[in-house]
Each structure stands twice: as structure tokens, then as C-alpha cells.
Amino acid sequence: MPATAKTKTKVTTSAAAKRSKATKKTGCKLFVLDTNVLMHDPTSLFRFEEHDLFVPMMTLEELDNNKKGTTELARNTRQASRMLDEIVSSAPDDIVAGIALEGPSRNMASGHLFLQTEAINVVLPAALPTARGDNQILAVVMHLAEHHAEREVILVSKDINMRIKARALGLAAQDYFNDKVLEDSDLLYTGTRELPADFWESHGRGMESWKEESHTYYRLTGPLAPDMLINEFVYEPEGDNPLQARVKEANGSSILLETLVDYSHHKNNVWGITARNREQNFALNLLMNPDIDFVTLLGQAGTGKTLLTLAAGLTQVLESKRYAEIIMTRVTVSVGEDIGFLPGTEEEKMTPWMGALEDNLDVLNGTAGEGGDWGRAATRDLIRNRIKIKSLNFMRGRTFLNKFLIIDEAQNLTPKQMKTLITRAGPGTKVVCMGNIAQIDTPYLTEGSSGLTFVVDRFKGWAHSGHVTLQRGERSRLADHAADVL
């Protein structure tokens, strides 16, 4: 890559000239990676297809400063360093001219990787002190943009302020989009579909229907059938006996609908809990279905995500004995200031983070019967013995067999963390992820790049997973009003 020193100018300029010819033909871009991109996704080195990458020396320095520790970021940093070492070691003589990524990436990328090999001296505005790492990376981007006017030079950063500063200097900058599922969270799959008024007229021709056990089945064809996904819920908004059903099969032009268990009726209560609205009924049908291994629930505060999940878990652990125990975990990201180290065992350390669990157990314990104070205390002890609280930090390498695994506040997980957790599931285990993507506390995560958004999008249409976005709050009129106006 070109540099300011005269001794290297001929070599690097010729290398750039060769790439420039290709650039004019292919429109190949040059992406400069900020440190946080590699810390967020170490495989980002292979995610830019035919385009070239440039890694500034300050990026390498910041990777070195963040490699120690047992956090997910530290692990990602070490992995990024190992991948860079593997790439550079594969072609040490091509560092200046650019290392082809096709081999190291196993054909995932066809561009070249360039490392900063010379000092770059660019005069930055006085308001940007050169001692700061971000500003040194901006200086590198400015230098490359000046010396490569024939191609597009773009800074890639997860840091919003870094991108703003780059654009203020007239530089192109963008977020890392590879693991971003969508730009607008309103476009996220909800798991439900309202049927039009003419649905039966347009889909009823040649309809087959039959009853089996407590369900009614409808095999239909029509214009909406190709768009429907397996385990998507469909409903009629009005009528004397409006249809609520699940898409059990979807084969291109035909679908098979299965009517639902009505969990709003007290005879079908789950640990004393009944569905208060349509979406809660959909959620309970997923949570209680043994053929569904993976459930995602989205919704704002008070929609009943935790209560419904715990009720379904307790019923299937203590009554039907489908699962051995409930395991509950969540990411420990503070909303306010960190309160410091917590004493005790793993479960005792996690207890302050599990306020939602305790609150909902109080509700569920009150529905467990009329045994008086002693009976409720005994029931509470029984429940607590079958619920284990685990920290995310100790999940690697584990395999959960016949467990009901609940991942709370999943919106604060990255896609990689989500993969780590879900792949812990062994035979007979059900995984439930729940959260509110409007309440993300993890730095650099957005509604579009959250691990929860990621799995909702990637798992839709799989025969053993289901998703519901809960719409209506059932906590209190105060909580509902606050969610709407604040």
C-alpha cells in the first residue's frame, strides 16, 4: 500500500497501480477497519467479498490493549489477532503489496488485506488531538482517500461518533452491516398475520378439513399461501367464532392450518395463568408445544413474556415432567452505574439481576392453590429447587439435556453470544429467548444488529421454532400509559 516514505514509494505505488486497474473494472472499494468492528466480529476480515481491507497500526495497537480478560470482547479480540496472524503468516512477502484473502477465507472473500507499514503524517484539525487512537485512524483514512482518488475509501466503524467525525472531515463512513438483519425494526417478522375479510372466498376452493384429537385442520390453496411460514399464527380479527390457527405445513401453493388450544379459558390454564389477549394465547401455544424447540418472544414492558414463560416451564417441569428443570440466564449489563463486585456463589451473584424472576414467582406462587401460608412456602421451596440461575460467563462447553432454558433480556446479546447459548441445547431441551429490542443497553448494539433480532430473522420458517411479538401490555394501566407516552 502507498506510504509517505520515499524508500517504499515505488514498490507501493506499483502495487496500488495494479489494483487501480482492477478497481476501474470491478468498482472494488477500500474499507478501513476500526478496532470495534474486529472486536464485534473477528470474521469481519472475510465479510467484504471482492473489496480490499486496510488495517491501521492503531487498530492493531488497540487490539493488543484489549486482549486480556475473560469477557466476550476479550475473546473476540484474541480471535481477531489469531486470524490476522494466520493471514499474514500465509504470505509474509505480500504485506506491502496486499495479501490475497481468497485462500485464508476459503473463498469467502476475494479481495486483499493491507496493513499499515509506514508512518502516516496527516495534518488534522486542531480540535482533533493526534494522541487519540480514533483520530489516528481518521488520519489514515484521510491519507488513503487523498492518495487513492480513483477508488472509494470507506471507514467501517461501530462507533457512531467516529462515523460522524469522519463525515465532518469529508470522509465516507458506514456501520458494519454484515450481521445487521434490518434497518427498520418495524419490518421485523412478528410471527402473526391478520387474515383479510375475503380469505375463505379466495382460499376455500378445494379446501380439505378434518378433526383430530382437539384440533381442526384446514388444507388450503390461494394467493397468500406462498408467503406464509411454518409456525406463523393467522387470525380473523372479527366474527362470532374467529379463527386462530397455526401454519403447520407450508408447501409452496398450499398450507395446512391447525386450530389452537384456547389458553384464555380457565380449563386450559397454565400453572393458574390464562392468556389475556390473542398474542399471549399464541405464545402459550408455542411454549406448551413439545415439537417446538426454540421460541422467541418480543414485547415491551408488561406484555407478559416472563410470566407466561415461567408458567409454561413450571407446568412442564413439575406436572407433566417433560423437562428436568428450568435454567434461567441473562446478560449482566447495567442500566445505571455498576454497583461493583457481588459476594457469594454464582447463583447469589446473579440474584440481583433476576428481579423479574422473583416478581413473577410471587405471582405464580399465589396461583398454586389454597394451602395457606405454609402451603405457599412449601410450594415456593419446591419451585425454587427446580429453577437454576446461571451466568452467561460459564456457559461455554456445557450441554443441557432435557432442560427448559430461558434467556432473559436477550436483546443485549450479540449474534455470536446468541449462537454460543443456543448451541448449548442438547436432546430434549427447549430454549426460550425473550426481550424488548427497544431497551438495548449493550454498547454498539442496535435494534438491527441485536442477537435477538438476528435469531428471529434466521429461525423464521423452521419447523421446530416459533416467534410471537406481544403487542398489548397487561401489567397495569400506569405501565401501559407510561410505555405509550414516555
TrEMBL record:
Membrane-spanning regions, if any? Answer: none
Q: Which InterPro entries match?
A: P-loop_NTPase (IPR027417), PhoH (IPR003714), PhoH2-like (IPR051451), PIN-like_dom_sf (IPR029060), PIN_dom (IPR002716)
Question: Known Pfam families for this protein?
Answer: PhoH (PF02562), PIN_4 (PF13638)
**SUPFAM superfamilies given for it?**
P-loop containing nucleoside triphosphate hydrolases, PIN domain-like
A GO MF label: ATP binding
Q: What Gene3D superfamilies does this protein's entry cite?
A: 5'-nuclease, P-loop containing nucleotide triphosphate hydrolases
Q: Where is the PIN domain?
A: 29-164
One cellular component (GO) term of this entry:
cytosol
Q: What are the UniProt keywords, alphabetically?
A: ATP-binding, Nucleotide-binding
Q: Which CDD domains match?
A: PIN_VapC_PhoHL-ATPase
Q: Which PANTHER family match?
A: PIN DOMAIN-CONTAINING PROTEIN, PROTEIN PHOH
Instruction: Give the family, as the similarity comment puts it.
Output: Belongs to the PhoH family. In the N-terminal section; belongs to the PINc/VapC protein family.
Record protein name field:
Phosphate starvation protein PhoH
Q: Which organism is it from?
A: Thauera terpenica 58Eu
